[in-house]
Amino acid sequence: MGGTGMGFALIVVLFILLIIVGTSYVGGGYY
């Protein structure tokens, strides 16, 4: 559970970060 759980958590965190950055980029400066 350690390796798989950490890998999944890392992917989720990166995905959420990508969504937050994309939303702030589109909503804030670009669009």
TrEMBL record:
One of its GO terms (cellular component) is membrane. It is a single-pass membrane protein. Keywords: Membrane, Transmembrane, Transmembrane helix. The chain crosses the membrane at residues 6-27. The keyword Transmembrane applies. It is found in: Membrane. Belongs to the SscA family. This is YjcZ family sporulation protein. It comes from Heyndrickxia oleronia. The lineage of its organism: Bacteria, Bacillati, Bacillota, Bacilli, Bacillales.
